[in-house]
Amino acid sequence: MASSAHTPPPNPYGTTVAPPPTPSTQPSHVSTSDAADAISRLFQRLPPALSLPTRASPRATSPPSISFSDQNLNLLSDLLSFSSQHGFFQLIDHPIPSQLARSAESESLALFDLPRPQKQHSFPKNWPLGFDADEDEEDGAGEAFCLESSCSTESTHLSLSSLREFTRAMEKLGLDVLDSLARAVGFENPFRSGSNRVCPLMWISEDVPGNKPDLSGRVYPYIIGLQYQITSQKHSLLVDSGWITVSPRVDSVMVTVGDIAQVWSNGKLKKVRGRAVVNRGSEAGKSSRSVSMALLLTLPLDTPNVSPLPLLPHLPPADHETQPHKAEEQTEAGSTSGTSKEEEEEEDDERPLFRSFSFEDYAWRIYHERLLLKDPLDRYRI
């Protein structure tokens, strides 16, 4: 009896049974390769600032080039092709003098050397215009100036003549590009009649040296954006498929298609979310200073609504004129078999893909929320 009192309690799992299974010992229904592919896709969708560090910098591709001259007979077709396939391209043979761009850069760099109080009081405060700074950033990172085309200031001590001339030259080039792009795609340019106002904004931010782009900048909706390539630098662009790295030619003007242009074209154009950001690695020279000067063609805040624009009337294909009997055969076939395939495709093109929305509400939301990872246009898709 005494010996039985010291008998240990029975083991509920038995003396030879292993401990209860843990998640790590459970059989997996996902193969190792599938899991690796899923993780790889996740990292590819992350912005460069959140992705894992790599030994080599991302490979940069050269943006498609378009000669913006009267001698380029393929201008409209090039604009349509590159804007619908990529959402960005670079202009060569443009009228912007390189010396003017460099003088404007020098004046812009001097703005960032001003004391913080002077930066805050030297420019109009009419949102989104003026000086903006991220209080969480140190050493001036996250600072930016947003100026209208005249680059007006509240101070008489600032000389921005080159920056003002550069901004107006970029505005004129942007309007010419937009007019050609509208004709190429086939939607009505609302600025051609003069009944609508364009709002050009010069967005200036200092490039932060480092191997990764600075993604702290504000996001603002625009039709098209233009950036003059002063030196050889890589840029990171956030397109609908994810982040890509491009390296434009020196003295070219990189053009990005914005979210408003995508809505206007009823989804025919691809877009770049936000502005292109400089990805400054060791090859760019970490000791040198530079700024990004992005001219955004956008809309005034009092714009009532943003929605797809009407398509321009177009002429029938040339082969209908040279071979009328084929057109008659197609018409007879269409009358017997109902709606033709071509008519169905035209109806699909005319069906709106976006519902109308307030530009001011949209601009305020993406400016303050900085919606880069999620497409801010998703909520307006039909």
Molecular structure report:
The protein has 382 residues and is α+β, with helices and mostly antiparallel strands. It has one domain: Jelly Rolls. Helix content is 32%, strand content 15%. It has eleven helices and eleven strands. It has helices at residues 2-5, 32-45, 75-85, 98-112, 116-121, 161-185, 259-264, 318-322, 324-337, 341-350, 359-369; strands at residues 65-67, 88-92, 130-132, 144-148, 199-206, 224-228, 234-239, 242-246, 253-257, 277-279, 291-298. An eight-stranded mixed sheet has the order 1-2-9-6-11-5-4-3. A hairpin with a 2-residue loop joins β7 and β8 (242-246). Residues 1-5, 11-18, 20-33, 47-57 and 315-336 have low confidence and may be disordered.
